[in-house]
Amino acid sequence: MLVRASRVAFAVLALTLLFAPRVSAQLTTGTLTGTIKDAQGGVIPGATVTLTSEARGTQMPPAFTNTSGDFVIANVPPDTYTIEVTMQGFKTLKRGGVSVSAGDRVGLGVLTIEVGGLSEAVTVQAESPLVQTQSGERSFAVTTKAVESLPISNRSFVQLATLAPGVTGNNPSRVGDRSSTGGNNSNIMMDGVSTMDTGSNSVLLQMNVESIAEVKVLVSNYQAEYGRSSGVQVSAVTKSGTNRFRGSAYGVMRKDSWNSNSQTNIQNGDPKTKVDEKDLGYTIGGPIGKPGGNNKLFFFYAHEYSPRTGGGDTVRFRFPTALERAGDFSQSLDNNGNLFPFIKDPNSTLPCSATNTAGCFQAGGVVGRIPADRLYQTGLNVLKLYPAPNVAAGQYNYELVRPAEKLRANQPAVRLDYQPSLKLRGTFKYSGWSQQDVTIPGTIPGWNDTKQYNPLVRTVAATVNYSLSNRTFLEGTWGRAQNSLTGCALAQAN
After folding, report:
1. For a Cys staple, 229 with which of 121, 176, 185, 429, CB 3.0–4.6 Å?
2. 3-class DSSP state for residue 7?
């Protein structure tokens, strides 16, 4: 019986005062900076700058330009915003499509306002893409549209990290093993909570992409708040509800009937391996209130079902024969079916080969037979655990067609966003994964089967933000990621 409990706890209740010019430790929010000038290039102090979410209609607390015409809007949740600049004696400036990603420090550059009345508005469109110029890290953001549209092999958001420049390798459970940083460590976070299994240093929860809004990959030169490891940092943000009801349904299927039999099976005369895998799910999100109204509470829910059917593949092994289990290799054969009893005696300095057997094990004049007093009883007992050969000896002496296997996993995700006022907002997120509690056939069914008695992984995160002023805010985050790897290997002895 193997019992192992592994918990990855990111339980931090942080009350951190953050000053706008030094904005730091922002794992799930971003920062916008810019300068307001008039048409003649003069700076405009005292202008009011507001951000409005294009998805939810909620606003950020207003920021005001300083004597140099500069402004900073910190603690901005990932979303697409419309920025509005107002100043007495000038036309109102509106610019839409301002995208903010988690951890971004993006400079908007110079925004020019024209002389006129506040009732007059200038709307700016088709601006060039924003470039992060406020920090020196090498990072790459995969946006919501890309997350939803890009075909990836295993439907996990971690797979998207391999799209980032400077990242090589395609194993999603070990992202960061080979990167431009040269390190062999990585850190995966979801909604500001680490989802790393510290026992195996792999991903604890590989959530499906339908519940992910965006993925940020930081390759090198990132700030101190990205801790734990020196390799690639992957930070994902779950989707949130918008001010309109939206939903989706999807199905991804892989079937053996859609492909021809593999060349390996054809050469060995084996039937086609059974493969029937489905990823079926749906999402729904929106306001708790009137769609399009002045709502403060939003929800998002996603659920994916992943039934799997496999088996039918032929496995072949070479196990110890009855004589070999007793320490007698005099009748052992090589891969070509030729007699090969030449077992080197480590206590002898003489050669052991077909032409000179002086250094080979031998007893009673039989080459390949280990003397009884040289046998290790514990080793003999281990050999007895292996299945007995069931076909004629050669390159293999054991053959078995694996039976059909059926499993089903579930992945729910829930998120609530609440903003009762301009200064206060909070979010709650839950993501999980569970699987049927059944016996899983091993590579040799009936001999090394396994069973996981609590197949459940879950992450919980809650964040509260309060703006004390246009330059100072208070943020508290608590989160936890947990799994329970309590199981056993079901082995049968002959």
Report:
1. 185
2. strand
